[in-house]
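Z., the sequence and structure:
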Amino acid sequence: MPRYLDSKALQEREKRRMINQKRLYDKRHDVHSLPELQQGDGVRIIDQRVEGKVLHKSQEPRSYWVQTPQGKNSQKWIKMFEKVAKYNKWDETQSLANVVFYLEGTAAQWFDNNEDIIISWTQFKKNFCEVFGQK
C-alpha cells in the first residue's frame, strides 16, 4: 500500500534546505548586509558609470530613486513608461492621465503639486526631466 507524505514535515524540511542553501551561497559570495541609504546619500550607479544622490526609497525592495547630473534615471523612467503606454495603446492624453499611477514618493508629490499646470505629455516629460535630473 502506498505511503502518504506528511506535508507539514515536507514543508519544514524544504524550508530548512532553502535556509541552508542561502547561508552557503552568502558565505561563498561574501554577502553581507548594508545599512539603508538615506536621503542625500551619495551613490555610484555602476551600470551607468555615474554618481548620484538618493532622493528617497522606492516601494520596490532594495531600490531607491536617485538624482544624477545627466538625468539618466529620469530619462530611463520616461522610456520605461512610454513602453507601458505603447503596450496599452495609450495616446499622449491617456499617458498623461495614467502617469499618476506609476509615480511614487517625491515624484508623485511633485506631480500632485503641479498637475494643474501640466497640460500635455510633452510638457510633463520636459518638466519631469528638469526637476529630476535632466540638464
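Helices lie at 7-28, 72-87, 92-98, 105-114, 121-131. The chain has a mean pLDDT of 85.

Let me know what you think.
H.
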